[in-house]
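ingest -> validate -> predict -> emit
validate: passed (alphabet ok, no gaps, 647 aa)
predict: started
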Amino acid sequence: MAEKPTYEELERRIQELEQAESELCLAEDRLKKIFDNTQDAIFIHDLEGKILDVNDKMCRMYGLTKEEAIELTIKDVSSPKMMLEDMQDKWKKVLSGEKLLFEWEALRPKDKSVFYVEVSIQKISFHDKDVVLANIRDITQRKKHEDEIEKSRKILLTVLNSIDAIVYIADMENHEVLFINDYCRRITGDIVGHKCWKAIQGRQDGPCQFCTNDKLLTEEGKPTGVYQWEFQNMSNGRWYDCRDTATEWPDGRVVRLEIATDITKRKQAEETLLHSKNLLRYIVEHTRSSVAVHDRNLNYIYISQRYLDEFNLKEEDIIGKHHYEVFPDFPQKWRDIHLKVLNGEVLSAEDDPYYREDGTVEWTCWECRPWYEKDGSIGGIIIYTEVITERKRIENALRESEARFRNLFEDIPNVAVQGYGMDGQTLFWNKASEKLYGFSSDEALGNNLLELIIPDEMRSEVLEHMKEMRETGVPIPATEFNLKRKDGSRIPVYSSHSIVHGFDQQPLLFCIDVDLTELKQAEAERKKLQSQLFRSQKMESVGSLAGGVAHDFNNLLQTMRGNLELLTIKESLDSRSAERLKAVSRSIDRAAELVQQLLLFSRKAESKKERVDINLEVNDVIKILKRIIPRMIILDLHLASSIWPLS
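emit:
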């Protein structure tokens, strides 16, 4: 039979239990502080979906108090677009032990505004009780960037061959390789037309067991987005970081695009790392920001892996060290901030420059707040930091690009450029537009472009084109228009259109017009000259024809004249026959004169001046006209006998 413990042993055990309870309470209090002050919104649900607890970030993100949040359901904080069946399906998967990471449209219940979040959700055991933990991260800005990336996807395809990674596209049904880049070709050879599982992975009798096709499409056949995974190639033994996505091939079939980056060295390094598995590290490691926890003397007591990565540090080199020993170049501004936080203030900045001793600048988004001991005293500070240097560089580059764009088109001569929103409101009006349409920049900006320069009869068609551009993102083809000037007159222009996304990601429509007035005038003059040239060529052809006919006819007349002269010398002719031959001779002479006129018309004979009896000439013309005009027309001729011959 066991001996009963002595009083001293009981007292010692009680003290040990009290000490353990005190340490547990302190740990839970610290955990609670970090829980409330993390950069992600956190929900804790029971297994039926009821909200048990939320942190302060959730309240700020959704515009609620903690009491209001606990009264709501998941449906109350989700966009109406989100399907109830989808919620229920995800919940079943979580309860079965799956850890899910997905995007969602969230809803602020009070103002009904919708925003995008990334949800990391799983079932955990907390105090011997199963609960569901959900980390919510606002990704509205990231979604905007992703939309911009998607718009640039087709452009990026043209530079795939310059990527230092394996890039290939394969049919999702029959696994046929449709495209590879040069990097892949150097490793595998030309495998287009072969099965991907055989040509790339090797040692396979069929599709790979780890094929991601089933992860890239929903049950409805819609792409799920980019799926990131890692694998070791069995052919060469190297590790790759893979980014797979489903997309549509030009012929309409669904294909898989994979970009595989060689991460063998990184993988080898990762295998040497040790990771903490306690709940505190798990929560902190999944925040967007890097986290550093200091005691009241500003010595490091905890740092996140992101913090080590972003500042190129090693955990064993800084734990227990003073903050300023690790960063001796901290400016006095931040030292003052640390003192204020140690006195109870919570301070933050969205984009703060950090000037290093080597002259480089790092931009950070940070928040600094105190953490408290069990007795309510300040135990130290927590610093949440996100390095945004690259984002600032991109933002500045976009601003500079937009400024260069405006400067380029503002003063460009003879090319009118107008920028307007999807609602038609004029946002850009360069000097060439002022000259072309007569409206000053002050008169045009802020007014609707349709009312300024689009004629009434064209507005319905233009509105339809604007709607089409808004829905498809494809500008209408360039064409000619007759647009309206300020004075109501019309002006012909050649108009091109483009869609540009500004720094705020809002699409803008740009219209580039070139005045065709001079071109139209030149075209009309060209047609006029062409018509005159045609008539001249036609007259020249007629003249050539007339000259040829005249020559041939003149030869016939000479023959007739010679034969007639032979007849007239015969003495046996009676007077009547001789008279008739003289009449024929006069006709031949008249025909010869007509032939001479044809030759003059065709410019194949030299002209000479002779005295002309006008009355005689008119009578000759009348004789010809009477033979060719209809009989119903009567010619009544009145000639003055006193008209003198003309030279």
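The longest strand covers residues 114-126.
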